[in-house]
Protein backbone atom coordinates (compact mmCIF):
# COMPACT_ATOMS: atom_id res chain seq x y z
CA UNK A 1 0.00 0.00 0.00
CA UNK A 2 1.24 3.46 -0.93
CA UNK A 3 -0.15 6.34 1.11
CA UNK A 4 -0.16 9.83 -0.40
CA UNK A 5 -0.93 12.92 1.66
CA UNK A 6 0.09 16.55 1.97
CA UNK A 7 0.14 16.09 5.77
CA UNK A 8 3.46 14.39 6.51
CA UNK A 9 2.69 13.75 10.18
CA UNK A 10 -0.60 12.00 9.44
CA UNK A 11 0.97 9.99 6.61
CA UNK A 12 3.90 8.82 8.69
CA UNK A 13 1.51 7.93 11.51
CA UNK A 14 -0.61 5.80 9.19
CA UNK A 15 2.46 4.03 7.86
CA UNK A 16 3.72 3.37 11.40
CA UNK A 17 0.36 1.80 12.31
CA UNK A 18 0.56 -0.48 9.27
CA UNK A 19 4.19 -1.34 10.04
CA UNK A 20 3.06 -2.81 13.37
CA UNK A 21 1.01 -5.39 11.45
CA UNK A 22 3.00 -5.88 8.23
CA UNK A 23 6.59 -5.82 7.03
CA UNK A 24 7.82 -2.23 6.62
CA UNK A 25 8.57 -2.58 2.90
CA UNK A 26 4.93 -3.46 2.19
CA UNK A 27 3.89 0.16 2.72
CA UNK A 28 5.34 3.46 1.58
CA UNK A 29 4.33 7.02 2.46
CA UNK A 30 4.88 9.75 -0.12
CA UNK A 31 4.26 13.36 0.81
CA UNK A 32 2.31 14.85 -2.09
CA UNK A 33 0.06 17.78 -2.89
CA UNK A 34 -2.41 16.27 -5.36
CA UNK A 35 -3.00 19.67 -6.97
CA UNK A 36 0.66 19.80 -8.04
CA UNK A 37 0.82 17.96 -11.37
CA UNK A 38 4.54 17.17 -11.15
CA UNK A 39 4.31 15.97 -7.53
CA UNK A 40 1.45 13.63 -8.38
CA UNK A 41 3.25 12.26 -11.44
CA UNK A 42 6.39 11.77 -9.34
CA UNK A 43 4.42 9.97 -6.63
CA UNK A 44 3.03 7.45 -9.12
CA UNK A 45 6.56 6.91 -10.44
CA UNK A 46 7.88 6.28 -6.90
CA UNK A 47 5.12 3.73 -6.27
CA UNK A 48 6.10 1.80 -9.41
CA UNK A 49 9.77 1.99 -8.43
CA UNK A 50 9.01 0.66 -4.94
CA UNK A 51 6.49 -2.10 -5.75
CA UNK A 52 7.24 -2.79 -9.41
CA UNK A 53 3.58 -2.52 -10.45
CA UNK A 54 0.25 -0.79 -9.84
CA UNK A 55 -3.03 -2.65 -9.33
CA UNK A 56 -5.42 -0.34 -7.47
CA UNK A 57 -5.80 3.44 -7.33
CA UNK A 58 -8.09 5.19 -4.84
CA UNK A 59 -8.52 8.92 -5.47
CA UNK A 60 -9.69 10.01 -2.04
CA UNK A 61 -8.27 13.52 -1.41
CA UNK A 62 -11.06 15.97 -0.66
CA UNK A 63 -11.79 19.27 1.06
CA UNK A 64 -14.79 21.40 1.93
CA UNK A 65 -13.91 25.02 1.24
CA UNK A 66 -16.62 27.25 -0.16
CA UNK A 67 -14.55 30.41 0.42
CA UNK A 68 -11.51 29.31 -1.60
CA UNK A 69 -13.71 27.48 -4.07
CA UNK A 70 -11.08 27.32 -6.81
CA UNK A 71 -8.88 25.12 -4.60
CA UNK A 72 -11.89 22.91 -3.82
CA UNK A 73 -12.30 22.27 -7.55
CA UNK A 74 -8.56 21.60 -7.91
CA UNK A 75 -8.46 19.07 -5.06
CA UNK A 76 -11.88 17.41 -5.35
CA UNK A 77 -12.21 17.17 -9.12
CA UNK A 78 -9.11 18.12 -11.13
CA UNK A 79 -6.79 15.91 -9.07
CA UNK A 80 -9.24 12.99 -9.27
CA UNK A 81 -9.25 13.28 -13.07
CA UNK A 82 -5.45 13.52 -13.16
CA UNK A 83 -5.05 10.60 -10.72
CA UNK A 84 -7.39 8.51 -12.88
CA UNK A 85 -5.46 9.25 -16.07
CA UNK A 86 -2.14 8.49 -14.37
CA UNK A 87 -3.55 5.21 -13.07
CA UNK A 88 -4.79 4.29 -16.54
CA UNK A 89 -1.41 5.17 -18.03
CA UNK A 90 0.27 2.52 -15.86
CA UNK A 91 -2.49 -0.10 -15.71
CA UNK A 92 -4.35 -0.26 -19.02
CA UNK A 93 -3.53 -3.29 -21.10
CA UNK A 94 -3.00 -1.45 -24.39
CA UNK A 95 -0.20 0.49 -22.69
CA UNK A 96 1.66 -2.55 -21.35
CA UNK A 97 -0.21 -2.73 -18.03
CA UNK A 98 -1.89 -5.73 -16.39
CA UNK A 99 -5.25 -4.10 -15.75
CA UNK A 100 -6.56 -2.97 -12.39
CA UNK A 101 -9.16 -1.03 -10.44
CA UNK A 102 -9.67 2.70 -9.96
CA UNK A 103 -12.06 3.91 -7.26
CA UNK A 104 -12.95 7.59 -7.07
CA UNK A 105 -14.50 8.87 -3.86
CA UNK A 106 -17.48 11.16 -4.40
CA UNK A 107 -20.27 11.85 -1.88
CA UNK A 108 -24.04 11.69 -1.52
CA UNK A 109 -23.67 15.41 -2.35
CA UNK A 110 -22.75 14.19 -5.85
CA UNK A 111 -26.27 12.80 -6.27
CA UNK A 112 -28.41 15.60 -4.79
CA UNK A 113 -28.24 19.31 -4.04
CA UNK A 114 -26.20 20.35 -0.99
CA UNK A 115 -27.47 23.64 0.38
CA UNK A 116 -24.65 25.87 1.69
CA UNK A 117 -21.99 23.72 -0.04
CA UNK A 118 -22.66 24.37 -3.76
CA UNK A 119 -19.05 24.12 -5.01
CA UNK A 120 -18.35 20.98 -2.96
CA UNK A 121 -21.58 19.57 -4.43
CA UNK A 122 -20.53 20.50 -7.98
CA UNK A 123 -17.15 18.77 -7.64
CA UNK A 124 -18.75 15.59 -6.33
CA UNK A 125 -21.27 15.56 -9.19
CA UNK A 126 -18.27 15.96 -11.50
CA UNK A 127 -16.48 12.95 -10.01
CA UNK A 128 -19.51 10.75 -10.71
CA UNK A 129 -19.98 12.01 -14.27
CA UNK A 130 -16.30 11.64 -15.11
CA UNK A 131 -15.94 8.17 -13.57
CA UNK A 132 -19.10 6.74 -15.15
CA UNK A 133 -18.05 8.11 -18.53
CA UNK A 134 -14.45 6.87 -18.43
CA UNK A 135 -15.72 3.46 -17.23
CA UNK A 136 -17.75 3.14 -20.45
CA UNK A 137 -14.66 4.12 -22.46
CA UNK A 138 -12.52 1.59 -20.57
CA UNK A 139 -15.01 -1.15 -21.37
CA UNK A 140 -15.28 -0.20 -25.05
CA UNK A 141 -11.51 0.05 -25.48
CA UNK A 142 -10.70 -3.08 -23.41
CA UNK A 143 -8.42 -1.27 -20.97
CA UNK A 144 -8.73 -4.14 -18.49
CA UNK A 145 -9.33 -1.48 -15.82
CA UNK A 146 -12.59 -1.15 -13.87
CA UNK A 147 -13.62 2.31 -12.62
CA UNK A 148 -16.23 2.87 -9.91
CA UNK A 149 -17.39 5.58 -7.53
CA UNK A 150 -18.21 5.52 -3.81
CA UNK A 151 -20.68 8.08 -2.45
CA UNK A 152 -20.69 8.12 1.36
CA UNK A 153 -22.96 10.18 3.56
CA UNK A 154 -21.44 11.96 6.57
CA UNK A 155 -18.28 10.16 7.77
CA UNK A 156 -16.40 10.80 11.00
CA UNK A 157 -13.27 12.36 9.50
CA UNK A 158 -11.58 15.77 10.01
CA UNK A 159 -13.45 17.25 7.00
CA UNK A 160 -16.52 17.61 9.26
CA UNK A 161 -14.60 20.14 11.39
CA UNK A 162 -14.47 22.52 8.40
CA UNK A 163 -18.17 23.29 8.87
CA UNK A 164 -17.29 25.27 12.02
CA UNK A 165 -14.71 27.46 10.27
CA UNK A 166 -15.47 30.76 8.54
CA UNK A 167 -12.29 30.37 6.46
CA UNK A 168 -13.85 27.24 4.95
CA UNK A 169 -17.54 28.10 4.78
CA UNK A 170 -17.22 31.75 3.71
CA UNK A 171 -20.63 33.28 2.96
CA UNK A 172 -22.34 30.08 4.19
CA UNK A 173 -20.74 30.15 7.66
CA UNK A 174 -23.96 31.39 9.30
CA UNK A 175 -25.70 28.19 8.16
CA UNK A 176 -23.34 25.83 10.01
CA UNK A 177 -26.05 24.80 12.47
CA UNK A 178 -28.35 23.76 9.63
CA UNK A 179 -25.61 21.44 8.31
CA UNK A 180 -25.08 20.03 11.82
CA UNK A 181 -28.82 19.35 12.06
CA UNK A 182 -28.56 17.41 8.79
CA UNK A 183 -25.67 15.41 10.26
CA UNK A 184 -27.77 14.53 13.30
CA UNK A 185 -30.73 13.59 11.09
CA UNK A 186 -28.78 11.36 8.67
CA UNK A 187 -26.19 10.07 11.16
CA UNK A 188 -22.39 10.04 11.02
CA UNK A 189 -20.66 6.81 9.98
CA UNK A 190 -17.38 5.25 11.04
CA UNK A 191 -14.76 5.20 8.24
CA UNK A 192 -14.56 1.40 8.50
CA UNK A 193 -17.83 0.93 6.58
CA UNK A 194 -16.36 2.96 3.70
CA UNK A 195 -13.36 0.63 3.72
CA UNK A 196 -15.79 -2.31 3.59
CA UNK A 197 -17.42 -0.85 0.48
CA UNK A 198 -14.00 -0.27 -1.06
CA UNK A 199 -13.02 -3.93 -0.57
CA UNK A 200 -16.34 -5.01 -2.12
CA UNK A 201 -15.56 -3.05 -5.29
CA UNK A 202 -11.99 -4.34 -5.45
CA UNK A 203 -13.06 -7.98 -5.08
CA UNK A 204 -16.15 -8.01 -7.34
CA UNK A 205 -14.81 -8.00 -10.89
CA UNK A 206 -18.31 -7.52 -12.36
CA UNK A 207 -18.49 -3.94 -11.08
CA UNK A 208 -17.61 -1.22 -13.60
CA UNK A 209 -19.13 2.25 -13.84
CA UNK A 210 -21.13 1.64 -10.67
CA UNK A 211 -22.02 4.26 -8.07
CA UNK A 212 -21.95 2.77 -4.57
CA UNK A 213 -23.89 4.67 -1.92
CA UNK A 214 -23.09 4.22 1.75
CA UNK A 215 -25.44 5.67 4.36
CA UNK A 216 -26.00 5.23 8.08
CA UNK A 217 -29.60 4.09 7.49
CA UNK A 218 -29.15 1.76 4.50
CA UNK A 219 -25.51 0.74 4.65
CA UNK A 220 -23.87 -0.28 1.35
CA UNK A 221 -26.14 -0.16 -1.71
CA UNK A 222 -26.01 1.07 -5.31
CA UNK A 223 -27.52 3.97 -7.21
CA UNK A 224 -29.89 2.75 -9.91
CA UNK A 225 -29.83 4.54 -13.25
CA UNK A 226 -32.60 4.09 -15.82
CA UNK A 227 -30.68 5.52 -18.77
CA UNK A 228 -28.21 3.17 -20.42
CA UNK A 229 -24.91 4.94 -21.16
CA UNK A 230 -23.90 5.24 -24.81
CA UNK A 231 -21.85 2.36 -26.14
CA UNK A 232 -20.11 2.23 -29.48
CA UNK A 233 -21.10 -0.36 -32.06
CA UNK A 234 -17.63 -0.49 -33.61
TrEMBL record:
Q: Which GO terms describe its cellular component?
A: cytoplasm
Instruction: Mention one GO molecular function.
Output: 15-hydroxyicosatetraenoate dehydrogenase activity
The entry's family comment says: Belongs to the short-chain dehydrogenases/reductases (SDR) family.
Annotated function = Catalyzes the NAD-dependent dehydrogenation (oxidation) of a broad array of hydroxylated polyunsaturated fatty acids (mainly eicosanoids and docosanoids, including prostaglandins, lipoxins and resolvins), yielding their corresponding keto (oxo) metabolites. Decreases the levels of the pro-proliferative prostaglandins such as prostaglandin E2 (whose activity is increased in cancer because of an increase in the expression of cyclooxygenase 2) and generates oxo-fatty acid products that can profoundly influence cell function by abrogating pro-inflammatory cytokine expression.
This entry's Enzyme Commission designation comes to 1.1.1.141, 1.1.1.232
Under catalytic activity, the entry for this protein gives: prostaglandin E2 + NAD(+) = 15-oxoprostaglandin E2 + NADH + H(+); prostaglandin E1 + NAD(+) = 15-oxoprostaglandin E1 + NADH + H(+); resolvin E1 + NAD(+) = 18-oxo-resolvin E1 + NADH + H(+); resolvin D2 + NAD(+) = 16-oxoresolvin D2 + NADH + H(+)
Keywords for this protein: Fatty acid metabolism, Lipid metabolism, Oxidoreductase, Prostaglandin metabolism
Protein name, UniProt field: 15-hydroxyprostaglandin dehydrogenase [NAD(+)]
Carries keyword Lipid metabolism?
yes
| Keyword Lipid metabolism assigned | yes
One GO term under biological process is: prostaglandin metabolic process
Amino acid sequence: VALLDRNSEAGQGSKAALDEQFEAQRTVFIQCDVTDQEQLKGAFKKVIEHFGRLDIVVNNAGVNNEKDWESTIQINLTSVIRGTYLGLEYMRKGNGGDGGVIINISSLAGLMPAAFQPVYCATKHGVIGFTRSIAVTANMENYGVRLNTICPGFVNTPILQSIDKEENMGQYYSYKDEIKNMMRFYGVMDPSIIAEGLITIIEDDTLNGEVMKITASQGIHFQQYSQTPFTSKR
